[in-house]
Amino acid sequence: MKAILDVLLAILSIATWIILIQAVLSWLLTFRVLDLRNNIVAQIWGGLERLTEPLYRPIRNILPSMSGIDLTPLVVLLIIFFLRSVISRYGYSLVPF
Hints:
Elements: H1 2-30, H2 39-62, H3 72-94
Helix pairs in contact: 1-2, 1-3, 2-3
């Protein structure tokens, strides 16, 4: 059981890093430090979009539009931090070893 919880925590940590990397990349694209016309940047951006969009879509349907400000990554990160806390505090205490 601990192994399953460890894998779940690892997946949540990887998801956190993916979201943070996408946020930094979006800032770099917004301030024109990077350009999507570069094939490598476009491939990285497309891959990150494909990974995060399934997480973002349900939350974007719930959140009201903020006229250009996307708070969806912040909400997803808060949910991930909450899940990690619940697993760490209560998940491991239920496991006998």
